[in-house]
Amino acid sequence: MSGADYDMGEAYCRRVEVDVVADLRWLLLSPPLLGGDDEYPCDNVVFTAAERMELEAWLEALAQAPQPLIDFLASARPNREVPMRLGRYAERLLAYYLNAGPIHRLVAANLPIMAPPNRDGGIATDHTTLGEIDFLLTGPGGQRLHWELALKYFVARDVEAPGIDDYIGPDSSESFRRKVEKLVRHQVRQAPPPPYDDRAWASQLFVRGQMFYRLGRQVTACSVLAQAHGRGFWVPFAALPELQARPRAHGFVILPRAQWMAPRTHQIAMNVAQIAAEVSRLWQVAEAARPQTPRAGLMIAEVAPRADGQGHDEVARGFVMPD
Questions:
Q1: In 10 A of CB 152, how many CB atoms?
Q2: Cα–Cα nearest to 156, from 177, 134, 135
Q3: How confident is the model at residue 288 (pLDDT cuts 50, 70, 90)?
Q4: Which of 3, 90, 284, 303 is a Cys-bridge partner for 312, taking CB atoms 3.0 to 4.6 Å apart?
Q5: Is the pLDDT confidence value at 7 over 70?
């Protein structure tokens, strides 16, 4: 069920192993990232207990014979040397479920929203792309649904009660507020283009990911986040020795972007000194490739040995951030 992929997340290239069925299970069954509040209300995709049991049974069968999923993913990459973006990978996983899984059925995907010509009364003939509908589908009772998918990871500033403006992307280039506004006030409100505009579609968000909080802090999360959203830690590079005090800190692994979804078993783990040296090396590689680009945080997994001695299982995730 594993497949080889290439990761270019931090301006370096390495071949990594990904478990595509585990990633699909994580995408479908992990908690939503957003819960919504008065400022940014949202309707999330939620599976019932019975539906989750049905999904688990389907995923278990898929894990025994994953080749159709592997082939489906490969069909989107005619050039294997060109890495698939993590968001695109998530799109393909969800598309496979909607094509081959239970409960829902795909109607259309990746529909561009075009501005009509002469939209300002002039003589313009261009059809500028205004956006895209991720998925149109039917539900178990024949409901017509519009899903917008997003996969996001943000780091909270070191404050006790971070607000929506206190979350930034690990490379500091992305604002959580801007992303939420785009999702809630634009993407889910887009009307499908012809020939799907002759009926009503109920819009829902399918947002997965994780938020990261300063190591050792007790934090009250932003109100727009789901109460059970995925949490991790972050630590400044200079404070990496703090990881040695972790009660479960048996070792750490740097996670390439292709492995940011499902937790997995790792065969090799590093101690804190080794992690510090490798993070420093990867930042130097990135700076040599893009001298004007600020350093970005690197995701790490905290791991513990398996009881059977076959590798190390993840127990937590975090980011090492530039000082």
A1: 19
A2: 177
A3: very high
A4: 303
A5: no
CB of 256 closer than 8 Å to CB of 9: yes
Q: How confident is the model at residue 293 (pLDDT cuts 50, 70, 90)?
A: confident
* Whether residue 195 has a cis bond before it, omega within 30° of 0: yes
What are the start-end ranges of the E strands in the chain?
2-7, 14-19, 105-114, 129-138, 144-156, 167-168, 202-214, 231-236, 251-254, 265-266, 298-305, 312-321
What's the CA gap between 300 and 317, in Å, rounded? 6
CA 98 to CA 79: how far, in whole Å? Answer: 25
Rounded Cα distance, 286 and 294, in Å:
9
The residue type at 300: I
Sequence-distant (≥ 6) Cβ neighbours of residue 267 within 8 angstroms: 311, 312
DSSP state of 228: T
Q: Which residues pair with 86 in a beta bridge?
A: none
Dist CA 91 CA 217 (whole Å): 34
What predicted TM-score, i.e. pTM, was given to this entire model?
0.90
Report the distance separating Cα 129 and Cα 116, nearest Å: 9
255 to 60, 61, 300: CA distances (angstroms): 25, 28, 5
Burial track 25-43 (b if 16+ CB lie within 10 A, e otherwise): bbbbebebbbbbeeebebe
> What would the DSSP string read from start to end of 58-107?
HHHHHHHS-HHHHHHHHTT-SSTTSPPPHHHHHHHHHHHHHHHSSS-EEE
Compute the average pLDDT of residues 22-36: 96
d(CA 300, CA 263): 11
How far lies 116's CA from each of 128, 130, 168, 186, in Å?
8, 10, 35, 18
Nearest CA to 215 out of 232, 233, 198, 202 is that of: 233
- Token output for 113: 């929203």
pLDDT above 60 (res 120): no
